[in-house]
Amino acid sequence: MFSTSADPRQVVASVTDKELQQIGEKILAGNRISYDEGVILFEKASLPFAGALANWVREQKHGHKTYFNRNFHIEPTNVCIFTCNFCSYSKLYAHREDGWELSIEQMMDIVKKYDGKPVTEVHIVGGVHPKMNLYYFVELLQKIKAHRPDLHIKGFTAVELDYMIRKAKLSIEEGMKVLHDAGLQSLPGGGAEIFHSEIRDQICPDKVDADGWLNIHRAAHNLGMHSNATMLYGHLEQYWHRVDHMERLRKLQDETGGFNTFIPLKFRNGDNDMSNIPEISVIEDMRLYAIARLYMDNFPHLKAYWPMLGRQNAQLTLSFGVNDLDGTIDDTTKIYSMAGSEEQTPALSTAQLVSLIKQAKREPVERDTLYNEIKNYADIDVTELEVNPLYN
Ligand code: V47
Ligand code: SF4
User: Fold this and answer.
1) CA angle 209-224-327, nearest 5°?
2) 171/324 Cα distance (integer angstroms)
3) For ligand 2, is residue 163 a contact (CB within 6 Å)?
4) Distance from the CA of 190 to the center of ligand 1, in angstroms?
5) Cα(65) to centroid of ligand 2, in Å?
6) What would the pLDDT profile of 191-212 be if each residue is shown by its tens digit?
7) What residue ranges define each of the domains in the chain, with the CATH number in brackets?
8) Where is [4Fe-4S] cluster bound in this sequence (predicted)?
9) CB-side exposure of 16: number of CA atoms within 13 Å?
């Protein structure tokens, strides 16, 4: 139905660099590329080369399907005991009067705002508040589930989980079980940043380390939960740090199979302690998405988070391996607007998301958190959606 790309066989056959040609042939034969080959791709692959291959892989896996969901976020607090240098969002506990701290009742009011609306997921992520403990969130999870049992709860980064579980003096396995029993169904991918200590020690020295992050996701997968994984790129890291990060995730995925989606997050430099670092170019963004699609062969999905990239660049990623654009969000997150994203009030109606995907000549499919298909919009006229209040 749709096609945007060059024939990858021709692109590989005509490349003059022998190393790149061998890597391209390996990918076209369906074989996994190595760590060294990942680094070579970052060092040498042009955007058309990486893009043609990534688009081919994407179409092998998903055809033209591009997934999104109908979701909203709850950000319980932006008060945080940690001091990640890239964070534009958090306030230290000593300055908590400049931030927000939502009570269970206030968070339930947000959930109730969506009564009767066809959202399928609530995404709960915030700062690490020293007074919001595991049992506070157990109560929140139980209340959300009692109010709306069909709403899938995807919540808490490994950073928040590590702190609340350790503070409750439970093992990671015990803590995850308590939260799962209370209604937590999936984990978002945040807090991964860059795993390698050479970079992690410079950008977020005090929060959970790579092994801690991976252990929490392993424990969730062992309980039958699914999760996502992010990578914060485009700051101090070198190419090999990115490949090292992806390699650790790929290994865990080989072991558990519990990851749904890999989400590269572009570093935005607005109003944080790393504002002196320039943001990288859109060409480098697209190369990164393409190479991530080629490297993360056991991750079913690659997501571009549109509130962070902006709508137009998110559309562009659909030609470079991406097959998921997250959700409608409904202006319920502040993390990226505070870091300088173009999207100051991130909200898209279903009709807007569908037409954004159609403009990129892809097939919009609404999914739930676990990628069960809810509705395929390929043959639905966008103007029909615009007049139906259920899609606005
Ligand atoms: O871990 C913070 C990132 C993450 C900045 O799993 C920044 O579906 C760029 O994890 N520039 C939290 N990024 C958000 C997150 C997430 C978002 C959307 C979907 C999912 C999912 C997960 O936000 C943090 C950090 O990597 N972040 N500050 C910044 N200045
Ligand atoms: Fe806290 Fe998360 Fe910001 Fe780090 S990125 S300071 S853990 S809110």
Assistant:
1) 75
2) 34
3) no
4) 5
5) 33
6) 999 999 999 999 999 999 999 9
7) 8-62 (no CATH), 66-391 (3.20.20.70)
8) 80, 84, 87
9) 0
